[in-house]
Known about the structure:
By secondary structure, the chain is an alpha/beta fold. Helix content is 42%, strand content 22%.
Amino acid sequence: MIVKNFEYLIALDREGHFGRAAKSCNVSQPTLSAGIKQLEEDLGVEIVRHGRRYDGLTLEGETVLAWAKKIERDCDGLENDLSALKRGLEGLFRLGMVSGTSTVGAIVSAALADQIPLLGQTVTANGTASLLRSLLDHEMDMALTYLGEVPKDEFETHHLYREHTTLFQMNEEPQPKRVAWDHVVSLPLCILAGALPSEAQLQLAHCSAATINTDTIDILAAHLATGRYAAVLPQSLATRLAHIPNLQASALTGAGAHADVGFVSVKGEAKSPPSAALLELVHTPKVVSPLQEILALHRQFQPRKG
């Protein structure tokens, strides 16, 4: 079968007239008619109701039309992908992430920019539920979030690393290396919106002391630096707090103490060339090495006390 004949069928349905359809395709009417007749012979069904004038499509013709439109979209996508490969990938890649993965997300985004210089990027922070809706609505290409909160029947996941929930505080006195939630929720806390997996957020709902909520890591760091507040964050955000004197990092124990982090995309949908390039890139030293450094940074703030 010739793809061009599917284009003739789409034009005929759109124009409702053989002559106008032929003109829109820049071919003669006999050429268009012959193409559709060839399509009927190839498929072994009558597609057009035959008469002196165009009188619409048969039931089989409507089915062929639906497939013709799908083939047209696939061909357009194929041409775009091949064109991108010829001139170097370009366009726009839309990445979403929860705020707790922002440090890692920056590594990934920068590495992708080095790999594909002509590619534009937008990076958006939001909660997991909002990120998943954006993926389903095709407002986002990929999301970096906590995989335990992602429905596996609708989304594909790509594991990147395991994150540990950590209590950060400015304190001259040595603190324990590990702390339980019962102790944490008794402290005055500054809480970063969307930074923690849902299990950890549920634990923080039991805070008995006054809390400050913010959606900005810089505001949280400023409050932490006063010495009056502590913060519960993913270990990877230690790099945003390293300037605070007498910073100590204690590992949480119990529910919500750790979570798997990775990329999420809509299940069953073809990945764009930038998305495919990103998933290959994250296994290279360009991403793995700085990721390991970030995940290990919190150790220099761990108390010596057991």
